[in-house]
Amino acid sequence: MPDLLDDGENEWGAVIGRALSFMCLHVADLRDKELAVQAAFLQGLGLTRREAAKMLGTSEDSLRVLQYLAKRVKGSKAKGGKSSGKKKKKRS
After folding, report:
1. In angstroms, how far is the first alpha carbon of the chain from the final one?
2. 47 is in which domain, residue-wise?
3. For 37-56, what is each residue's pLDDT tens digit?
4. Among the four 12, 37, 48, 86, which has the fewest Cβ within 10 Å?
5. DSSP summary character for residue 13
6. Is the separation of the CB atoms in 42 and 55 below 8 Å?
7. Domain count along the chain
8. 92 to 2, 21, 30: CA distances (angstroms)
């Protein structure tokens, strides 16, 4: 039996953790969702953005921008969207 304090054991722990994270993503039926949603889920499980990006086949910077845009869209929908500054006249 290998020594539990061996450095190779730590590498296998990371591999097993990433594999379990990917299986959780699949079981949660998020594989068909947007990358920002999948990345948020993986980061919620404890992966870094870099690790999530590798698993999803994209770059860390791309994922950061996608998450920023998703948060921005979500925020604008909650506030009722952007206004052009003009008020609509009420018809009587």
Report:
1. 85
2. 8-73
3. 999 999 999 999 999 999 99
4. 86
5. H
6. yes
7. 1
8. 83, 58, 48
Q: Which residue has the tokens 């992966």?
A: 47
pTM, to two decimals: 0.68
**pLDDT tens digits for range 48-86:** 999 999 999 999 999 999 999 998 988 876 665 555 556
Q: Does 65 map to a domain? A: yes
Q: How far is CA 68 from CA 28, 35, 64, 79, in A?
A: 23, 12, 6, 17
Cα separations in angstroms, 84 against 81, 87, 88:
10, 8, 10
82 DSSP assignment: -
52 within a domain of the structure (yes/no): yes
